[in-house]
Specification:
The structure is a homodimer of 354-residue chains.
Chain A: H1 6-10, E1 27-28, H2 40-48, H3 63-73, E2 80-83, H4 86-97, E3 104-108, H5 113-120, E4 125-129, H6 138-144, E5 148-152, H7 164-173, E6 177-181, H8 193-198, E7 202-207, E8 220-223, H9 226-234, H10 243-253, H11 256-279, E9 283-284, E10 291-295, H12 304-314, E11 317-318, E12 330-334, H13 338-353
Parallel strand pairs in A: 1-11, 3-4, 3-5, 5-6, 6-7
Antiparallel strand pairs in A: 2-8, 7-8, 9-10, 10-12
Helix pairs in contact in A: 2-10, 3-10, 4-5, 6-7, 11-13
């Protein structure tokens, strides 16, 4: 007998986007962080947090935070389950639903972690390709009838959102859980929460990492029918959310005005960034998110995307490049401030001139 | 097809110890928290933490914290892996090692979460009873040869520690991983870190919840051979430790003097508490931890332990009662301040008089 499970020995670890050393002077457009600081009310909650409270365990259900999230979404508190980032909730869902013989299904390209999580549970995973313009492969997804179907909406790395009517058809068509990974919903013109309310097999995941600018706090939550959350509750960590995250997260949720204002600025910058990249000859998909996917033009030469990625990195600008089928000629670029985006555009223009 | 795995539907959620509402006036001796506040240096790190840093993702490896822990234990940084509390590391170990056909083995009574984690992975679990004075059932544990063998050392709820020579024999005798759950090691006269250094299949888990008085921060770590940690790294969350916990935890680890001083006071109070309970007629096992296990005497009447637990609770004193075989006549009592312990002893004395 060996020490580890076969599936674990064979799998590769998920590699998150590069995090430069603290204090490094880079323009960081690679992991879809918000360019603006967290809400002043969240920062105040952090400053006022009494460190002596850390002596005791945190609330196992992070009730203060869940209450704040429930109010924002107009659902009872029992419809909210908090976790250590929305990745934690993704892992809980795969653990509760998938195993050998119970498959995980999702359209690709998308968030690579879905595959990693399926591999951890030795569960089969079926990757159904999106259409050329990221059209949802609805019929095939229904036909696969996964124990879990993940839909990142907006999707990463495309930035696009499948129409809600198609998500509804998916929810009707499959027996398993449909997970709307709505990490980027705060930058989007719509979301799937109404479907969550209407279909018991639909659950939405949200995070405070993007819209709320709290990626370093590790706080995410599920919005779902209490029958779904009761099952996830069985596999949750005893105290997944620390006391600081609970207090700061509750304050951030309570300041919707600030979040919306920042998201609005990001959307406006996104339009300008998209225009700038198009002007340089990239094909850019319409984005509902805080990043854009830009495809290098054939005239830019071989391996243009990777070459631009490397050159930008040397100049202190980080964007995301995925060396994977369908993505090798593309860059995923986080929307920064207008100034950062202008610097990026100028840097790419210079690279293309060479 | 149903939405969830059979093992998940059938299992019960782990129920952590009761957490009274914030501000409730109780003497809380039920979840083995430290009665003293966190290190002043940890509190200072919290106060000085710049909230704007939360905008970006935290360090995936919590390097600043791991560096501090590595220095304390005299190992290279690669021997430390941080998680969202040591429960997170327990879950990672079960996920990496156990599945149907690969069993989890541990002596009982012990931390109930080991069973819950095995159930989550549909892994068989073998519970080998401790001897009447919590002697390690070494031969049976070796004979079971688990993919993982958990030894809580000191053990909860007994407070006792199996001799290190027996742990060494166990490490030599099994093919799988031997996990020393050393959550309470800071209150103990010895620990298993030398075995970790000498045996590749031994890993120790530590937490900042007990000795460092940071239960609400959710921070734990594994000390293990890099080959073991590389495998656990595959199943870890991308960013398990938030930026605040990393900074505060590093500061706490850097203040060994404060931790040792508090642990020393707790050990001295433990001796007095043990004496007080013995004086009331309880049998109390010698404890290496920050709690004691007290067995009600036959002369105290039927269901004495549960009755005392209930009465204490009504009077605002929480202790832990496990309605389980072998524990029904016992109470697990956290060592509080001398004043809290004296109040407890007086309250029990009064209950026994009735």
């Amino acid at each position: 007998m060996t020490m580890y499970r076969k599936n674990i020995k064979e799998m590769a670890a998920y590699v998150p986007g590069e995090q430069p050393a603290p204090g490094a002077k880079v323009i960081k457009l690679n992991t879809n962080e918000n360019p603006y600081p967290p809400s002043p009310r969240a920062m105040e909650a952090l400053r006022e947090f009494d460190g002596r409270r850390l002596r005791q365990y945190s609330d196992p259900h992070a009730s203060a935070f869940c209450q704040a999230a429930a109010e924002v979404h107009g659902v009872p508190c029992e419809w909210i389950l908090a976790g250590n980032g929305s990745d934690d909730l993704l892992a809980m869902i795969v653990l509760a639903c998938a195993e050998p013989g119970r498959k995980v299904v999702y359209p690709t390209p998308t968030y690579v972690l879905y595959r990693t999580l399926a591999q951890m549970q030795a569960a089969p995973f079926v990757e159904v390709p999106y259409g050329p313009d990221f059209e949802l492969p609805l019929e095939q997804l229904i036909c696969e009838n996964g124990a879990v179907t993940f839909i990142a909406r907006p999707n990463s790395p495309s930035g696009t959102s499948a129409p809600l009517e198609q998500i509804e058809a998916l929810a009707r068509g499959v027996c398993g859980l449909v997970v709307l990974d709505e990490a980027y919903a705060d930058f989007s013109h719509d979301n799937g929460l109404e479907l969550v309310k209407r279909y018991q097999n639909v659950v939405a995941l949200r995070t405070l990492s993007k819209g709320y600018s709290l990626a370093g706090l590790r706080l995410g939550y599920a919005v779902g029918n209490p029958s779904v959350l009761a099952m996830l509750n069985k596999v949750k960590d005893s105290y997944p959310v620390d006391a600081v995250a609970c207090a700061v997260g509750a304050a951030a949720m309570g300041d919707q005005e600030y979040m919306s204002k920042c998201a609005c600025v990001v959307r406006s910058s996104r339009a300008k960034l998209l225009e700038g990249l198009s002007g340089l000859g990239f094909r850019v998909w319409p984005s509902e998110s805080n990043f854009v996917l830009a495809q290098a033009a054939a005239c830019m030469g071989n391996c243009a995307a990777q070459r631009i990625y490397d050159r930008l990195k040397r100049e202190g600008i980080l964007v995301r490049y995925f060396k994977e089928p369908l993505l090798e000629d593309k860059l995923r670029i986080t929307v920064g401030t207008d100034e950062q985006n202008a610097t990026l555009i100028a840097a790419i223009a210079k690279i293309l001139e060479c």
